[in-house]
Design goal:
alpha/beta; 16 strands; eight-stranded parallel barrel; 387 residues
């Protein structure tokens, strides 16, 4: 239902993940029977979690570890890993710098040119370690380096920006990326995003996307919503884009997974994103808290080092456990940030959903007090949901 903001301007109410709750049905099942498998491209994964293509989250080692655990990590091919042969001292500088000097240092470090040879090298290192080589480029980066990625043995290419669309206007001196043509020419599946509307998601699927990323600005380290004023609350954005997936499948017979990207911290957040229609989630800050993460207790966004308009900041996330404990347990914390797979399986059991498709069909309620109702003691003592 539209709401009138004023004469000549109406708006639609949109909902965030924190404003909804999942309602149990008439059936429950043992969590061990919950099937969390999903497919993207020609690959099947046991865990519907992708680690974000951020320099503090995924490096070669993390990409391999995530693959071994049944998940997936995406390496940023326009970040520290492809600008410096030895990224360790660069990451140390980012961790050590003070708050007031952070933006300037990031702009300095990311001004170092990308080395095409390092793109091929990093992809090769992941493959040699037995990992899935999923990598990320911006649309502009795809024009420059897409062919190298296709020739280097990568398994998946994520074309990512704050907003990606098939109708991009550019100056006459610049030829924009033709997404549909690129998907036809490259030999590997291409995931595109980000988007937050039915129309754009549908157009990306028609252009040949093997998956669509949904989310603008909800990430822990992202400031796009404050800087640009752009975004749609994640529950509504995911539901709208999932509707595009269903219509596209009815029209073509092709199923294109929808990946909720940003603002997802706990197991409950993952469960609610899938209930809204997502097939998987992309997360950053929860993975950045792993002992093996390259960020050294810190997490920063992909647009943070912009030379003209940074849209992101560096946040201290700390280290809470190994990547195995965070993904599959056993949990060492009581706040829903460990054993994310176990949380999903238990939620599916409680809701009676045998697989992710059934999880997408569970009943959802608007519940703005879901996370605060009855939690006075937890909040006062900073325990569990009160942290």
């Amino acid at each position: 239902m539209d709401i009138q903001l004023g004469r000549g301007k109406t708006a639609r109410r949109a909902y965030g993940i924190d404003e909804i709750a999942l309602i149990p049905g008439v059936r429950t099942l043992d969590p061990s029977l919950a099937d969390t498998r999903w497919e993207i491209g020609s690959m099947e994964r046991q865990i519907p979690i992708i680690a974000s293509a951020m320099d503090g989250v995924v490096d070669v080692k993390m990409a391999i570890l995530l693959s071994e655990l049944g998940a997936m990590g995406v390496l940023n091919l326009e970040g520290i890993q492809t600008r410096y042969a030895d990224p360790e001292p660069i990451l140390d500088r980012i961790v050590a710098v003070g708050k007031s000097e952070f933006v300037g240092l990031m702009q300095e470090l990311y001004a170092e040119p990308i080395k095409p040879s390092l793109i091929a090298q990093r992809i090769g290192e992941i493959k040699e370690g037995g990992g899935i080589a999923a990598v990320s480029l911006t649309p502009a980066g795809t024009i420059k380096y897409g062919e190298i990625v296709g020739n280097s043995g990568a398994d998946l290419l994520f074309i990512q920006a704050t907003v990606v669309s098939t109708a991009h206007l550019s100056p006459e001196s610049f030829t924009p990326l033709d997404l549909a043509q690129f998907c036809q020419d490259i030999s590997i599946p291409v995931v595109m995003g980000n988007c937050v509307t039915y129309e754009v998601a549908l157009n990306l699927m028609k252009a040949g996307a093997a998956g669509v990323l949904v989310g603008i600005g909800p990430g822990a380290a992202c400031t796009s919503r404050g800087v640009l004023g752009v975004g749609v609350p994640q529950a509504t954005a995911v539901a709208d884009c999932a509707a595009a997936r269903e219509d596209y499948q009815r029209e073509t017979g092709k199923y294109v997974p929808v990946i909720a990207d940003g603002g997802i911290i706990t197991g409950g957040d993952i469960c609610k994103c899938i209930a809204c229609g997502a097939d998987a989630v992309m997360i950053g800050s929860p993975i950045a808290r792993a002992e093996e993460a390259p960020g050294g207790d810190y997490h920063w966004g992909m647009a943070t080092p912009s030379p003209v308009l940074p849209r992101g900041t560096r946040i201290k996330v700390g280290t809470t456990g190994t990547i195995k404990e965070i993904l599959v347990g056993p949990a060492k914390l009581d706040d829903g940030t460990h054993n994310l797979l176990g949380a999903l399986q238990t939620s599916m059991g409680t809701l009676g959903a045998k697989d992710l498709r059934e999880m997408q069909q569970v009943e959802v309620a608007i519940a703005p007090s879901l996370l605060t109702e009855g939690k006075l003691y937890q909040k006062a003592q900073q325990l569990g949901m009160g942290k």
